[in-house]
Amino acid sequence: MNDEQLHPLIAAWLDGRITEENSAALQDMLRTSAAARSEFRRWTQLDAALREQVDQSAEAALPKNVVPLPAPAVRFRMLGWMAAAASFIALLSLSALWLHDRQHTTARSLTSQAPEQTNTGCAILTRSTDAEFADTKGLRVGDTIRPGALRLTRGVAQIEFFSGASMILEAGASLELVSPWEAVCHTGKVTVRVPPPAQGFKLRTAGMDLVDLGTEFGVNADAGGATEVHVFEGKVEAHPENAAMQLLSTGQSLRRAEDHTLSPGNTRPEDFPSIEKLNAISSTHAKERYDSWWQHMQKAKTDPRLLACYLFRHGPDDRWDRLVENVAEPRVPSRSGGAVGVRWTEGRWPMKDALEFKSPGDRVRVNLGKDIYSAITLAAWVRVDGLDRKYNALLLTDGYDPGNPHWQIYEDGRLMFSIAYLAPADQRVNKKNNQIYFSPRVFDLTNQRRWHHVAVTYDNQSGEAVQYLDGQEISREVSPMHQPGRPIQFGPCEIGNWGLPTQGHQFPIRNFNGRIDEFLIYQAALSPTEIHELFEIGKPE
Amino acid sequence: MTDDTPERIPTAGRPDAGYEAFVRLLVEHEPRMRAYLRGLLPTWPDVEEVMQNASLVAWRKFADFEKETNFAGWLLTIARFEALKHRRNVARSPLVFSDDVWESLANEAESAADSGSVRREALERCLGKLPPNQRELVLKAYAPGAHLKEIAQQAGSSEQAFYKTMQRLRAALLECISRTMAQEGLV
Q: Which of A30, A341, A374, B116 sits at 20 to 30 Å (Cα–Cα) from A72?
């Protein structure tokens, strides 16, 4: 099949202007080639989708108050036929109302200048322990899950539907998420918890549909086709295929065997995943990860290239709660930090401390001394909760004097490293040459509120700034203003803010919104392998 | 699917439960039916007419529909039958395919797995990526009651050039949609 021949023919047919001769040619292709038919189908589907899209845009352009009630349904091409049937009208007004809302939503993203961010999910992955998914690799806690297949091949996971229903899955569970209100369990074991607003949540299995009337039940669908439902709390309507509905209450179970016979019984909660089991497994797992990280850090903190190593461990004997200890060895206590405003909270694991930065005044002050360096590395574990400011501080020197490094996240989610030097004498116009290095955009709504490893290395000989996210190099750049050998100096600085700018400057607000639970500063440019190792050592899962 | 409301099992005793269930199903599967029929019928007015007929037939027969079986398949079967009936009444023209071609298109379209809702989202995104004047052109061409000749004149191009542009834009959109859906794991 040749697209160059086929496309003009399909287009002509769609536009209603195909000639007798071309129609014969098109039909010949369609007759003999499945690929041509498939292409034809794509074009006709696009035609239909565009038609629908435009209908909705036109719809959205109508001022709301001229919409004729009580029969808004007539505005919808297809539903027009129904308006003729009087008995439908009351009902249609209702369904048309939500339709109207929905269509406004879809149309808006097409017409507005800056489209609102949209999402097509129906649930969120809220917890996972040692979990591996078959079709949706890379699914991480906090991710939105779209309707479709969800197969857990390892570990335990909890998902929360947008309706409010939550579900715990065990390894082997094969599901299909249909909507916030409905899922299909093909095989495996799941436990569902349904709070009042999600009552009516429906779980379907091969031989039985279950409608939750509130609270908790477990389902086990085995590969052979037998299904069991156990009600741990509340009531569930079981609709077995070809049999009457049964209302099951707390303590009751119902099994539908391969041969379709139904047998009632008592519940066996121990056979199903539960929140308690998930808690136990995840705390064991987290403890293992934490211990492994801690072990590695014992060695990492003796790296002679370290200028400072903040592991954000809340010291039990720090009565004032404000010390952010520099644990690099040999110890240099003067490089320990002082917390201002920030509060201690949970880090990458439940047993790991972190500092939370929220208010415009929150910061950690550190003084790294007046020494000068020829290369540096900044590496931190951060959880970005939002990018509220134009510049969101990671680490900034108090001023921005020649050789002072600044490390921030720009408002659009790009990591930004900068260092300034005086312009050469012959080009000086009272200005500094500001070497700014941007990474590609890395933070957006999909990865905020999750722990990420960020790092940057800068070498004053090569002039190269290399930026990393989660152990992967994301940018490598030399500034055109670079001149080899100019010194790098920290002096007093702040983690998470820029509160003491040089005199005479406006007081910009650059407070970081989120958490930090590890911050390493080296007087050398670490290699990509070393950065990757830091990520591997510390990754939460 | 992007349906944002629950699809509850109709409760016995409420007279309108069946209507509601039917309307919901129909609304949900409307894009699929429209796309299906567009590939089988020569013009949009034909598509609209058959959609209305098929919807009415589906409603009349809804009591026979076995709940929890495949509504889309059931609806498309009805749509196909209505399309076939309609075909007998339309005049022969280059737009009307011969019986054997029509048969294989109908068979394959019915079984072809596709999800209208997912495509729509990808389509929106891809339309957004077109330069504004080209997007404008596409939207105008698909506006209800649009006359392609007039749009071509307004755009200041010859009819032939305009058709060529439309063909190119469609191909570009399809290409972008496939890419988007593959990237987003929507396929």
A: B116
Task: Collect all residues of chain B within an 8 Å Cβ-Cβ radius of residue A80.
Answer: 52
The answer, for B11 touching chain A at a CB cutoff of 8 Å, is no
Any B CB within 8 A of A114 CB = no
In order of their start, the domains of chain A are 3-111 (no CATH), 123-273 (2.60.120.1440), 308-538 (2.60.120.200)
CA-closest candidate to residue A519, choices A386, A327, A345, A351? A327
Say yes or no to pLDDT of B10 above 70: no
Residue A231 has pLDDT above 80, yes or no: yes
Distance CA(A251)–CA(A236), nearest Å, equals 11
**Domain segments of chain B as ranges:** 17-111, 116-183
Print the SS3 string covering A63-119: CHHHCCCCCHHHHCCCCHHHHCCHHHHHHHHHHHHHHHHHHHHHHHHHHCCCCCCCC
CA A397 to chain centre: 31
Model confidence pLDDT, tens digit, residues B46-61: 898 899 889 988 888 8
The C-alpha atoms of residue A228 and residue A222 are separated, in whole angstroms, by 9
- Which tops the pLDDT comparison, A305 or B106? A305
Question: A80 CB contacts (<8 Å, ≥6 apart)?
Answer: A73, A74, B52
pLDDT-wise least confident of A59-63, A295-299, A443-447: A59-63
Give the C-alpha distances (Å, rounded to integers) separating A235 from A249, A251, A456.
5, 10, 55
If one looks up domain B116-183 in CATH, what number appears? 1.10.10.10
**In degrees rounded to 5, what are phi and psi of residue A354?**
-150, 165
- C-alpha B72/C-alpha A176 separation (Å) is 17
- The first and second tokens of residue A322, run together, are 């404000």
**Which is nearest to A88 in space by CA: B62, B129, B146?**
B62
- Which tens digit of pLDDT belongs to each residue from A70-83? 333 333 343 444 44
- Average pLDDT value for residue range B76-89: 90
Q: Checking phi first, is residue B129 left (phi over 0); if not, alpha (psi -120 to 50) or beta?
A: alpha
Query: Which residues on A lie below 8 Å from B59 (Cβ)?
Result: 82
Instruction: Output the pLDDT for position A507.
Output: 57
Give residue-wise pLDDT tens across range B12-39.
Answer: 334 456 777 888 888 888 888 988 999 9
Residues of chain B neighbouring A202 (CB-CB closer than 8 A): 6-9
**With an 8 Å Cβ cutoff, is B98 touching chain A?**
yes
Nearest to B101 among A31, A55, A202 (CB): A31
> What's the pLDDT at B112?
63
Would you tell me which CATH number, out of the four given (3.20.20.150, 3.50.30.30, 3.40.50.740, 1.10.1740.10), belongs to the domain B17-111?
1.10.1740.10
Helix (H) or strand (E) run with residue A467 in it = strand A464-469
Q: Flag the least confident range among A109-118, A313-322, B70-79.
A: A109-118
Which of B9, B39, B186 lies at the smallest CB-CB distance from A211?
A: B9
Q: How confident is the model at residue A116 (pLDDT cuts 50, 70, 90)?
A: low
Q: Do B163 and A11 touch (CB under 8 A)?
A: yes
Residue B78's pLDDT is 92
Cα gap A479→A463, rounded to integer Å: 7
Q: Is B56 on the interface with A (CB under 8 A)?
A: yes
- In angstroms, the CA A274 to CA A289 distance is 22
- pLDDT tens-digit profile of A400-419? 888 999 999 998 899 999 99
**Those residues with Cβ within 8 angstroms of residue A462's Cβ, 6 or more apart along the chain or in another chain:** A478, A484
Flag whether residue A40 sits within 8 Å of chain B, measured between CB atoms.
yes
Q: Which stretch of DSSP H or E encloses residue A157?
A: strand A148-161
Which pLDDT score is estimated for A24? 92
